[in-house]
């Protein structure tokens, strides 16, 4: 096992160096360990357009008012995401299917979808439950979770539920400009709230969001609670054909991310180029050993141009992606 981790860490180091030196700047997303269908290189995109989340806005269509006597009735609230602002901020959106970032995510999502559909060499248990995490804070978990969700929702055949499970520092609501309302935490503390009451449909047809909900002093304990286990199982039962993406807390700074990881069929570990240390990557991987499929995604590889701040994805997965019995990356 350790030799695989060593290889992965070495490969990451190579990718990191490639990101520093490369001309053209962004390295090809590529396998860190046995990954036959290594995708082609994508050029870096400027990130100067990344707007402050405060500038993003969304609005909610008035929901039918649920009668108090019928608390179980789904309200099916719909939120209008500001797709133009999201696109300008560098996110994947259905309006810009040919953007660089959209092409990169077409590559990144492919093996995840193959595993989720059970079309890999081995069947991945709960392959539709995908957590996006990282070793430390601020490495791009939310950015990549949103892009993955958006990219998959643009597929003909897939519906996506994006869950803000970073309950201590939620940010999907800020990025999407969602209004305050019930969400994951509310579902965990109040069993009168129905899942459908907390979920928000969006103007991206196949994308539904479960925000983190009303802040709670015991938010992190709740995320690692039996109630969360039961909720994930219920999600799996109710939405077996939906891809469910969890934006999570960092693995090395919290214990609840590791508990969350135990429920996942696939985990994407975001590694920030030029910042995440090899030792942190190795340590983070050891905390999620039990997950059948782990993929590493090298984020924010710098371009050759001094001022460019580009996208770049080194991408890898262990043999576990197609052979869960060797899940040892
Ligand atoms: N590839 C990228 N290109 C451009 N901007 C990016 C990229 N990845 C991340 N960012 C930006 O970097 C900042 C931090 O990213 P993000 O919020 O996704 O990190 P995080 O890991 O979710 O942080 P936290 O641990 O605080 O939740 C955000 O402003 C995000 O938009
Ligand atoms: Mg985040």
Give me a quick take on this structure.
By secondary structure, this protein is an alpha/beta fold. The chain contains eleven helices and ten strands. Magnesium ion is lined by residues 141-142, 166, 171, 247.
Can you put this structure into words, describing what you see?
- With 329 residues, this protein is an alpha/beta fold.
- It has a single domain (2-60, 74-326), classed as Rossmann fold.
- The protein has eleven helices and ten strands.
- It has helices at 2-21, 83-88, 100-116, 141-153, 172-176, 184-189, 195-198, 219-223, 226-238, 256-261, 278-287, and strands at residues 58-60, 77-81, 129-134, 159-164, 200-202, 207-210, 242-247, 266-272, 293-299, 314-317.
- The protein has a ten-stranded mixed β-sheet with strand order 1-2-5-6-4-7-3-8-9-10, with helices on both faces.
- Helix 1 packs across helix 11 (278-287) and helix 3 crosses helix 4 (141-153).
- The chain starts with a helix and ends in a 12-residue tail after the last strand.
- The protein binds adenosine-5'-triphosphate (ATP) and magnesium ion.
- Adenosine-5'-triphosphate binds at residues 47, 50, 90, 134, 137-143, 166, 169, 171, 250, 299-300, 311.
